[in-house]
Amino acid sequence: MPFLHQRTSSLKAEGIPLTPLRRSSYQRKALKKAARRRQRSSSAYSARLSVFDLDDHDENGDEGFDELLGHLDEVDLEDLSDDEPHSRTYHAQEHDEDGNALDDDDEFVGRYLQRRDPYRTEVGTSTSISLPKRYSMASQSVLPTSVVDEAGSMSSSTNQSSLERWKTHLYQDVDGEQSTFPLVAWCFMTGFINSITTSAVFVWAAFQTGNTIQLSLALARLFDGTHNYTFQLSDRFALCSILSFLGGAFIGRVGDKMGAKTRAWLALGSFIQTLFTMVAAIAIWKSGEPSVAVERGEIAWGSALSFVCVGFMSASMGLQGIMGKRINTQFTTTVVLTTTWCELVAEPTLFHVRRLVRTRDHKAIAIFACFLGGFAGRAILQAIGSAKTLGIGTVLRLLITVSWVFMPAKKK
After folding, report:
1. pLDDT tens-place string over residues 316-327
2. For the segment 382-409, what is each residue's pLDDT rounded down to a tens digit?
3. Do residues 262 and 129 both lie within one domain?
4. How far is it, in rounded angstroms, from Cα 244 to Cα 232?
5. What is the dihedral of CA 173, 177, 180, 183, to 10 degrees?
6. Bridge partners of 5?
7. CA quadruple 131, 137, 143, 147: dihedral sign
8. Is the N or C terminus of the chain more exposed, i.e. has fewer CB atoms within 10 Å?
9. Where are the transmembrane segments (predicted)?
């Protein structure tokens, strides 16, 4: 709110007590109108007296006005000098005893000052008042010391407002329909990560349907008459993958507290996936085991570090899956393609090839991205090994993390 500027009449050095005049809404409007008129004509008076914004105090605006005039009570009129460099001169238009000399806008101001100084004897004159240096400001306005201190702290409040803007930005919900890049990248990572685990131990880090069936087959072998109670290595990897996947999905409950679609949670959750992938890369690098199994009966991994690798890869996929599901787009969970395939072939607009259809096209893109990720993962794996391939996956996940910060917000 802009400051209100008033012209004041002569003030007595004796400091006569001030009797506040309660103002009506009409009178307050007159004050604001007078202030606007004086702002447009800077030559009408030599300086302005800045009064607190009425809306910042009580309903009648008396507190700020009275406090400022209280500062002027402390001025010794006999010691004033216009020659001091810090002086501020104010000229007040006088009025007669009935208040008729003032225009409509100044009528209330005149009555207020007349009540404040009822012992005036001179009419039709103007008095010059110089304020002490502690009340002078470069903007030619007089404010209490508290307001001056507040103006001096504006630089720190600017930094605080920047933090508030960032907080607001991060806690806005993203528009899932316009977040195609990170969602497609997640689908790509599904194929990329699965290609590594399947090539080494023949289990899936993301497709838990296959792992669940594999465990059911392992249990069924107990009743085939051979009395083979061995818990095979590939079955142990399947169990490790399922439990880790569920653990990663459980972390997604944090997003329900922060806001499942907010930029803050999507970036944080993606960064956790990045850390999980990095730990998997370090674990398999330290194990020194080969990257590709020769045949299904002879898997490539078998050490404790390889279980750590499979566990963290599966946990990253579990967290990715629940985050994708919460966004609720055509990409669904980004880790399961069975539902996506069914919805795609049953899409009513499947053969409308002459125009773009978001519900159909996004499903097709999700399937293709997963396929491309599997192809790229296996090709890189054969060239540089599992550890370095997971290192590339870590970088890709970090890029996805950054991209969530800049996704468009959902329109309300």
Report:
1. 999 999 999 999
2. 999 999 999 999 999 999 999 999 999 9
3. no
4. 18
5. 60
6. 50
7. negative
8. C
9. 183-207, 264-287, 299-319, 364-384, 390-407
Distance (Å, whole) CA 351 – CA 341: 15
**Domain tally for the chain?**
2
CATH of the domain at 357: 1.20.1250
- If you ran DSSP here, which 8-state letter would residue 4 be given? E
Question: What angle (nearest 5°) sits at the alpha carbon of residue 134, between those of residues 131 and 140?
Answer: 60
Q: Give yes or no: residues 196 and 116 share one domain.
A: no
- Establish if 411 belongs to a structural domain: no
Query: Kindly report the CA angle at 337 between 321 and 296, in degrees rounded to 5?
Result: 95
Which token pair is 114? 């007349």
First vs last Cα of the chain: how many Å apart?
A: 29
pTM for the model stands at 0.63
Torsion of CA 131, 135, 137, 140, to 10 degrees: -40
CA distance 398 to 372: 19
The confidence band for 28, taking pLDDT boundaries of 50, 70 and 90, is confident
